[in-house]
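Structure ticket #2291
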Amino acid sequence: MKLNGKHLFIIAFLSLAFAAWATTRSDSRDSDTGEFLTVAHRAPANTDFTVAAESSINGVVSIKSFASRRGNVYNNSPYMFDDPFFEFFFGSPNGGSRRSPRQQRNDESDQQQTGLGSGVIITPDGYIVTNNHVISNADRLEVTLNDGSTFNAEVIGADPATDLALLKIDADGLKPIPMGDSDALKVGEWVLAVGNPFGLTSTVTAGIVSAKARSISSSVNTRQKMGIESYIQTDAAVNPGNSGGALVNLNGELVGINTAIYSQTGNYAGHSFAIPVAMVAKIASDIKQYGTVQRAILGVTYTELDAKTAKEKGIDKVNNGILVMEVADRSAAKEAGLEPGDVIIAINNNPTHTSSQLMEQMSRMSPGDTINIAYVRNNSTHVTTATLYNDQGSTRIKQAASVTQLGCAFKKLSDETKKQLKISYGVQVAGLKDGKFRDAGIKEGFIILDINNARVNSADDVEKVFNSIMKSEEYDHVMFITGLYPTGKKMYYAVDLAD
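Resolution: structure written out below.
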């Protein structure tokens, strides 16, 4: 049969239609019958980010920090460090990483802007969550909403171990970002990062969840202790100024607080890290209710089990988990019957293959909570329960640390006293009563010259050093004090600040 133009058109049309139909199928031959098997492709996921972006930008704020221009008093933040790989990306006014020292308090006219970060509104009446490293060295914090309204912020409390802080502004009718479920996040899921990189307000970037329960200090040989780590890793672009901003899912729900980036330059290089909202919610709730985090302790020292160690120890049941090395006396783990050599594989049915997974589960717990622990012993799986305690071995509520527990006031030195003792600075203990100073042997009239090698010249200086010590997770809570009595006798005291 001779084909004319009409026939050729029909053939071409049918060929194109068949090709289009074929692209919606995945065909492969059955090895037994030789027939084609057809699997329908799933429709592509919705990637319209507009609803999530519009619902979240009004819930993210800009946070400017201010400090006086005067000299350094004390700097002990575990998050201000020069590491070639990981940056806690709190932006300086000129866009670089913030490395400013802790400054003395002073009036606003003597203050300069030292950093720029982000925060997330979590209640309509003005509670805002951000990173601890955004606020840790500030004398004053200024919060700007997406509509341009500006407020001074009060620090309700902070937790250096998780790098979280809770602020409060005097405002009502705000638009908080609703809390999502970070546990339900899946690797490959779309997320948006909302913040203020380089001072560019209300910036939204998109990426996917690259990994969960990521420990970043174990990824490289970082020199710095980085607290409780169990991050959501994404490839959403974040930069200095994004710190403390929101990570949201496509429903516009908060799933994390953006905190760190992998970088050799200080700017974004493909990997960013966020604190899961399940951890954020617990920390913020504790700080709001008690002024400090109610942290539960299991009472074990451990290492991560790997295939090599499992083989050496004759463990066939599992190749990963938390290998218990020691069990502390009078601990929850001891009472639960855990022993060295046990491998913890789950807490409350949540896997603990890595230390970051264990830390995340424990960070959600409070003293007095009862948990189920699944563990392997002698290649058999067992389950036990444990009632958790705080670091003092009890279940009682821990109160926020206050300089008032020192049990005294502080008096400015007169010029005459300075001249007589041949000193140029110091602060005198006055109104001594029962408290930490009296317990340590300090007497009325003692003149403090320095605390933990930091010079003090006012009550504000003492309070700043006290707060830095109490916030630190890296050092013992002890004041090492050098000073003089009015007679000229030099004395040294160690003041234990632990409960």
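Closing remark: The two ends are 100 Å apart (CA to CA).
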